C-alpha cells in the first residue's frame, strides 16, 4: 500500500558526494597507500573533517577503508581464478551463500502481465535518500519493482519508469519511498523483502544466482555464467545485469571483471565501488580496529 505521510527528505546521508570523491581518489592512488593528509588535501578538506564525515558514512575510518580496498582487490583477482567446481560450490551449495537469498523473496511477472503494461496496477513511487545518493523507488502490492540511483532527483528517471508501466495508475509517495529505503539499506534488516521482477527466463535465472553471492563478496562474470549452467555466456550474463531494474537488492554490484577491475555499472562505476566497499564495511567485524590519523602505516 502507498503511505499518506509527507515530508520525506534527502538528508539522512548528506556526505555521500564527498565520500564518492574520496573513494574515486583512493581507487586511483591505492598503489601508493596515501596518508589521510594527502587524501584530505586532494579534497580540500581538513583531515579531521574528512575523518569524521567518512566514518559517519561508512562506519569505518578512511584508513580502514583503504585497507579493505587493497585487500578486496587482491581477493577479487584470486577468486577470478576459481575452478568451475569451486564456483559451482560457491553459487549456493554453501550455507553462507544462501543467507542473502533468504532475505529476498521474489516472484516474476508473467509475459501476459508485462504485455498488459501495468493495466489495473496501482504503482506507488517516490524519491528517497540512500547511502549512495538519491534513489527512485517504486512498488506494487506485490512488492518492490524498481530501484534506480541518480545524482539528483530527475523527471527523466520517472519518465523511464512510466514507460515500463504505461497503463499503471501512478501514485507519488515520498514517505513510502523513504520507508522502503530505510528497510533496503539497513544492515540489520529483519525479515525478507518482497520483490516483483520482470525479465526473460534467462535474466531471472541470472538474477536469482546473484542472490547467492553473500554481501561483501564478488564474483566474475564468468563465475556467474558457470553458476547458471552456461559457462560460455559471460556476455549474455552482462546483458542480464544491465537489465536489472531493482538496483542493490538484486546485487549486480557484486560482479566484477576477471582481472579484478570493478567493471561497468548502470549507475556509475564509482557508485558500484562505493556500494561494494560500504557493504563489506557494514558486514565485516575484521575492520573494527581503532583508527589513527594516517591511512597507511
**Overall geometric form:** globular
**Any idea of the CATH class of the domain at 84-282?**
Mainly Alpha
Task: Tell me the strand order in the biggest sheet.
Answer: 4-3-2-5
Architecture per CATH nomenclature, i.e. the level-2 architecture of the domain at 84-282: Orthogonal Bundle
Determine the CATH topology of the domain at 84-282: Arc Repressor Mutant, subunit A
Structural class: alpha/beta
Along the chain, the helix and strand elements come as HHHHHHEHEEEHEHEHEHHEH
Please work out how many helical segments DSSP would assign.
Answer: 13
Give the biggest beta sheet.
4 strands, mixed
Gyration radius from CA atoms, angstroms: 20 Å
Helix content: 40-55%
Question: What would you say this structure looks like, in words?
Answer:
This protein is an alpha/beta fold. It has a domain of 199 residues: Winged helix-like DNA-binding domain superfamily/Winged helix DNA-binding domain (Arc Repressor Mutant, subunit A), CATH 1.10.10. The chain has 13 helices and 8 strands. The strands form 3 sheets. The protein has a 4-stranded mixed beta sheet with strand order 4-3-2-5. A two-stranded parallel ribbon has the order 1-6. β2 and β3 form a beta hairpin. α5 crosses α11 and α11 crosses α12. The longest helix is centred in the N-terminal third of the chain and has 18 residues. About 11% of the residues have low confidence.
